[in-house]
Automatic annotation (TrEMBL):
<dbReference type="InterPro" id="IPR009351">
    <property type="entry name" value="AlkZ-like"/>
</dbReference>
<protein>
    <submittedName>
        <fullName>Winged helix-turn-helix domain-containing protein</fullName>
    </submittedName>
</protein>
<dbReference type="Pfam" id="PF06224">
    <property type="entry name" value="AlkZ-like"/>
</dbReference>
Length: 392
């Protein structure tokens, strides 16, 4: 086992750098480059504020515009499929989606048993009529067609999508519009189905690219049955001199031998989405940032400690707290319903937040409010009570 080439603080610095959180980029081309660097951007439907996939990119692209994601889809530079969850993925990685698709085609179960008759009917309609969404398959009494039952048709669409016969062409009011894969894919794409070894190598490479280092558990996160193969390949690549490893708090981390140079630490505040690539693995977050985080969307209201939709707050290299947010769009006000700072965070009893932190947090809130179409933000409650400190 090789020695630890960086201090724990430097590993955190590298992680944030590889996540694009130290040096913000600008423009649509940088948006694509960021998706390629991260490997995926998770899609989520919750919209009390701007949806997760847009927020993840806004955290990294200074002038991010949501329409850029639609344009990149239309230009066939990204596509929708499954990472550890529903996600936008770089089109350059398309062949690696074929690994899961082949498994499903060969009988591996997804969410429900395939209804092959309904799948055939859905496939025939899209072939004949062109792109369709689930709501196009509503009940009809036409004598020349089937009685469409929306739920089975929707399941058939999703199964055909997961198996690779359909792709998402675009979204309309967040509804997926499906078309035949051969009518969506750009020409000249590599369509070779990767072997298990190739797919595992892809998982390792993408994870180390976007985080700097990782354990076999983290690299195989929500990839059922692949952890042994990931662990074996990590050890083989270390033995071949390609990777190094070190132990920290009882976990073995692997890293590429050619590490990038460290960039300066950002002095800005980043409000991170609950589904952000940095945040999504809670155990890793606890390990590296000593930050105990749980999204409380699925927690009964009376048991919530922070609030329904809380954003972790990143300042320099620390996660210093979180805030529950809601955009009241009709009034163009972003409500910070509960702002909570970590216990032990150094707060001046007289002046509250340091001038640097207060200024950075106010700027982050102003930017996030504007991103949500709001003209102002309002702090409702804070723990500890820093209302005057922040807004004065």
């Amino acid at each position: 086992m090789s020695s630890m080439p960086l201090s724990p603080e430097q590993w955190v610095q590298l992680n944030l750098q590889q996540q694009g959180l130290h040096q913000q980029r600008r423009g649509k081309a940088a948006t694509l480059a960021t998706i390629e660097q991260l490997g995926y951007v998770q899609i989520d439907s919750i919209n009390v504020v701007e949806r997760a996939h847009h927020h993840v990119l806004q955290s990294r692209i200074a002038n991010y515009q949501p329409q850029w994601l639609d344009e990149l889809m239309a230009e066939r530079k990204i596509f929708e499929y499954w990472s550890h969850a529903a996600a936008y993925l770089p089109m350059q990685d398309f062949r690696f989606s074929l690994f899961r698709k082949q498994q499903l085609q060969q009988g591996k179960k997804h969410w429900f048993a395939p209804d092959h008759q309904m799948m055939q009917l859905v496939r025939q309609r899209i072939t004949a009529e062109g792109p369709l969404k689930a709501s196009d398959f509503t009940a009809t009494a036409q004598k020349n067609g089937p009685w469409w039952d929306w739920q089975p048709a929707k399941q058939a669409l999703e199964q055909l999508f997961m198996q690779g016969e359909l792709m998402v062409l675009r979204r309309e009011k967040f509804q997926k519009v499906f078309d035949l894969t051969e009518r969506v894919l750009p020409a000249g794409l590599d369509l070779r189905v990767p072997s298990c070894e190739e797919f595992v190598a892809y998982l390792i490479d993408r994870y180390l690219q976007s985080h700097g280092c990782g354990s076999s558990t983290q690299i195989s996160y929500l990839r059922a049955g692949l952890k042994p193969e990931v662990q074996q390949q990590l050890l083989e690549r270390q033995a071949g001199g390609e990777l190094g490893s070190f132990m920290l708090q009882g976990q073995r981390y692997f890293y590429p031998q050619n590490l990038p140079e460290l960039a300066p630490v950002s002095r800005k505040v980043s409000l991170l989405n609950p589904f952000d690539n940095l945040v999504i693995q809670r155990q890793r977050l606890q390990h590296w940032f000593d930050f105990d985080y749980q999204i409380e969307v699925y927690v009964p209201a009376e048991k919530r400690k922070i609030g329904y939709y809380s954003l972790p707050i990143l300042y320099r290299q620390q996660l210093i707290g979180q805030m529950d947010v809601k955009a009241v769009r009709a009034e163009k006000v972003l409500l910070v319903q509960h702002l909570v700072f970590n216990e032990g965070l150094m707060l001046n009893k007289t002046t509250g937040l340091s001038d640097g932190l207060r200024q950075a947090l106010r700027q982050a809130l102003a930017d996030y409010a504007a991103f949500n179409g709001c003209e102002q933000w309002q702090l409702v409650r804070a723990t500890p009570a820093v209302v005057n400190w922040l807004q004065s």
